[in-house]
Amino acid sequence: MTKCVISLQHDSQHRIDMRWLSHVLQADMSAKEALQQSLQIGKQKIAIGDVFSIEGKLNAENLQFDHSTSSCDYVGYQLPKSRRLTVNGHVGHYAGAELAGGELIIEADALNYTGCGMKAGVLTVNGNSGDYLGGAYTGQKKGMAGGTILVKGNSGDFTGDLMRKGLIMITGNIGHYCASRMIAGTITNLGTVGDNIGQNMRRGTLLLPELPKNMPAHFVNCGRHNLGYLTLLLHELHKYDSEFRSLHPMRRRVQRYLGDTSINGLGELLIWIG
Amino acid sequence: MRATRIIITAINYKWARHAAETMTGFATSVIGCRVEAGIERQLSNDETPDGRPGISVLLFSTDRKTLQTQLEARIGQCVLTCPTTAVFAGMHTEDRIALGKNLRYFGDGYQSSKYLSNERYWRIPVMDGEFICQETTGVQKAIGGGNLLVFARSISQVLLACEAAIDSMIALPNIILPFPGGGVRSGSKVGSKYPALSASTNHRYCPTLKGNPDSVLDKNIEAVMEIVIDGLTKEDVALAMKVGMEAICDLGKSQGIEKITGGNYGGKLGEHHFHLREIISD
Q1: Residue of B45, B50, B123 to mutate, interface with A, max A Cβ within 10 Å
Q2: Could you tell me if B165 and B126 lie in one domain?
Q3: Cα separation of A46 and A37, whole Å?
Q4: Which domain, by its residues, includes A98?
Q5: Residues on chain A touching B49 (C-beta within 8 angstroms)
Q6: Tens digit of pLDDT for each residue in A66-75?
């Protein structure tokens, strides 16, 4: 299997827009051509080769990005199907934005808007992620519209904001305003969740291990149920190497809440029982 | 013919079988029922998508559209209504037909979908919880109407032989025997003296008409029984025929079985011809 290693030669005090990688992949450029492309960093326009090095062919199935820092935004932007990008280091904002079927693995933390506008593929964050995980670009209405996000740490506020489809798995805790304005999809975690959960939630599923400390009044209790589709969901969760594999594959008993009733929402908040 | 397979699961085999038997009722022949359907086999918990006991059902029809119409109607009336059931695709071909795609509207806006592993599932609220159904199921070309004709000296002997054959054949995958218990006593021929009918009794095989010049029955034949086989491939049908013939032959001629043959209807029905001597000698 072929591999290509892209390295950040030195960090910048300015944001580094990594969308150039998507552009050179789409244009099917060679490494040499790619390094000659220009890149705007701060007020300066420089050659990509001044900041990055590329070893191997860019058409490789496996891409590796070394020495990444939290200055690097849009890492894995629009990564297409059959491409896998492993990032060694932290990433900045918008990691995996508009991911288009590829696999993005971030070995450390990610900042805000991770997986925003994502369409398909798998995004794994082995550290923590910031706010608006799987959300939409500011001012836009389309959040995550497909694929899977797995965060093996905690996620920030507004996780799954305006989410339309797909699955967000968080092994740790989720911040405030989780699933706000959610339209569809599934968010699940194994830790705690902050306040104001499911605000303006239209549809979709929140599957949590325990009730939030401040249960919102706009969710109504629909009782305890055995939901058959949870077996299918658990089968999906078990596909990923994470703590979710500790959940019994036939577990299906939950307490169900429906909301956000203030907007006649039909979203569901499910709490594992037993 | 076109065929599809679905998997019906339920809280236990009893309810899964109730649903499967109901939905495969009145599905013996495409001539009168538009679809031929039957239970393929029982599935263990680890063979079903939701880890519950299941039944695999095969449906055959002359064309894709009729198959879809019949499938949706039967799922809607016989599986959706049956307590604790869920229904999933049992065939994963590129060509798909609707399974729960239109059935979801029964949810009256309260239905919701989940998209997992590139498959969409619909959750329809019902009075025992939720009815889960996959959006589509695969469809493929298939073969209907493979048959064996068994000639015997008495009704009891032909029944004994056919029961032995049917018991062996129904254990095979990818086939169904759509008629009641797997046997057919009213074998038909193409056409009729009455223009409105496309099929009529195969008088050449009726023992009460043995004196008729058209009859193909010897004097000592008192009963003929047909076993009709629908299968996903020619090989599946041929294997079922072979297994069936072997089971009958194992009983021996002393059991009153005089002959096994197949109806070829002058080669007018279908493109596949099964030559029994070749099949049994393979």
Answers
A1: B50
A2: no
A3: 8
A4: 62-272
A5: 231-232, 235
A6: 999 999 999 9
Q: Does residue B69 surpass a pLDDT of 70?
A: yes
Tokens of A169: 């798995």
**Predicted confidence band at B18 (pLDDT cuts at 50, 70, 90)?**
very high
Domain of B63, CATH number, reads: 3.30.70.520
Q: What is the pLDDT of residues B185-234, one digit of tens each?
A: 999 888 899 999 988 999 999 999 999 999 999 999 999 999 999 999 99
Both structure tokens of B264? 């070829």
Q: How many CB pairs under 8 A join A and B?
A: 50
CATH number for the domain including A213?
A: 2.160.20.60
B195 and B251 fall within a common domain: yes
- What is the residue range of B22's domain? 2-140
Report the alpha-carbon distance of residue B27 to residue B245 in Å, rounded.
25
- Token couple for B125: 């609220």
Residue B31 pLDDT grade (very low, low, confident, very high; cuts 50, 70, 90): confident
> Between chains, do A236 and B116 touch, taking CB under 8 Å as contact?
yes
B112 & B153 share domain: no
**Domains in chain B: how many in total?**
2
Last residue of a domain, one of B115, B140, B165: B140
User: Could you tell me where the beta strands, DSSP code E, fall in chain B?
Assistant: 2-9, 36-43, 54-61, 86-89, 96-98, 112-116, 119-126, 129-134, 136-141, 143-152, 175-176, 183-184, 188-190, 199-201, 223-231, 257-261
Residues 232-251 of A with CB under 8 A from B: 232-233, 235-236, 239, 249-250
In tens, the pLDDT along B76-87 reads 999 999 999 999
Cβ neighbours of residue A76 closer than 8 Å, sequence gap 6 or more: A18, A85, A87, A95, A96, A97, A99, A102, A104, A106, A123
Share of chain B above pLDDT 70, in %: 98
Distance CA A234, CA A247 (A): 8
User: Do the domain assignments include residue A56?
Assistant: no
Flag whether A12 is in a domain.
no
The residues, any chain, with a CB within 8 Å of residue B91's CB and separated by 6 or more, are B3, B4, B5, B137, B138, B139, B140
Which pTM value belongs to this model?
A: 0.92
CA–CA distance, B40 with B4 (Å, rounded to integer): 11
Q: Give the model confidence (pLDDT) of A201-252 as tens digits.
A: 999 999 999 999 989 999 999 999 999 999 999 999 999 999 999 999 999 9
Query: Which residue of B86, B115, B117 is in closest CB contact with A228?
Result: B86
Listed residues B140, B155, B183: the one ending a domain: B140
Q: Give the pLDDT confidence score for residue B270 in this predicted structure.
A: 75
3-state helix, strand, coil in chain A (%, to 5): 10, 35, 55
